[in-house]
Amino acid sequence: MGEKNGLRALARACAGLGATALVGRLMPAVLGPQRDLGSEELGPYLGGGGDVRVREMSPGLTEHEGGVLEWDRAEEADRTWRWLHGQSVAIEDVFATSDDGTRLAGHVLACCPGSPRWLVFAHGYHDNWRAGLTYARRFAEAGYNLLFCDLRAHGASGGDWVGCGWLDRRDLVAWSHWVLGRAGEGARIALMGISMGAASCLMASGEQDLPSQVRACVADSGYSDFWRTAENVVSTGSLGTPPVAAHPLLDVARRRLMRAPGGYDLRAARPVEALARTRVPVLLLHGEGDRVVPVEMAHELAGTGTGHELVAFPGAGHCCAVFADPERYWDAVLGFVCRWT
């Protein structure tokens, strides 16, 4: 019995050593700055290659369901391109500073100068601000000026580490104050994000110093708990990586990040805790075929606190509900934000 226990201990030690070496190689690429994120004019979903992205995020669809997604994606790409090139104002590069001193980059399209409505949009992991162009036209037509953020350690924003929503929550508070500086105290702000950006918005909504002018939060494909999401992604390979045992890999990464300059605890990124205390009305959107962030997490979020709304979409994977049923999606989103802002 003792020999078996010794072998088990040795196996755990070897596994830990392997994880340490692997994390040392992978951590800068996975959680370090994400700078080279493509230059497609319409972003990762509407630009060239967007059809591949959507199908990768929606595995297991029937041929008909996949065809619907691609048709709706291509149609929105065409409409957005024509709308964007018809604008009389240019996209501005703007900057804010988070409370830890990180310089944040944003991109503004002040397409409705007479309107007090503003959308602050947060993209997902390993994307950039142009992911927000998928949603831009519809919000602009509803009277919103648009601020697309580069999340920290993404694109042109500073930061040593990807924030997983935890660090980004403070950045979105900073951006909300930036909007007030630009538009005045009468601004009416909606936060919206997808995936990690959705989690960032949910956690920002629970911050005590979030301006009262933030009146709505829309979260598409957001997770309730980053740690559990990471366990799912690593063990299933749902983002296209080979599936491997989540532990001790994640445990080693967590310890390293906590000890690194500017680091933090990955377990702190728990939007479900923020929703228990938020004053901001929240709309949750989620694809029922999401294998990156299982739809059960959306139900968990919806059941936390009071008054949160959830709309789930059959035939949609991660961040793809907007293409699976655009009419229902935008009825829900614009009905919600226009009610509160």
From TrEMBL:
Keywords, comma-separated and alphabetical: Hydrolase
InterPro entries xrefs: AB_hydrolase_1, AB_hydrolase_fold, DNA-binding_regulatory
Residue intervals of the AB hydrolase-1 domain: 119-331
Gene Ontology molecular functions: hydrolase activity
Gene3D superfamilies tied to this protein: alpha/beta hydrolase
Entry superkingdom: Bacteria
Pfam families: Abhydrolase_6
PANTHER family (alphabetical): ALPHA/BETA-HYDROLASE (PTHR43358), ALPHA_BETA HYDROLASE FOLD-1 DOMAIN-CONTAINING PROTEIN (PTHR43358:SF4)
Protein name: CocE/NonD family hydrolase
Organism: Thermophilibacter provencensis
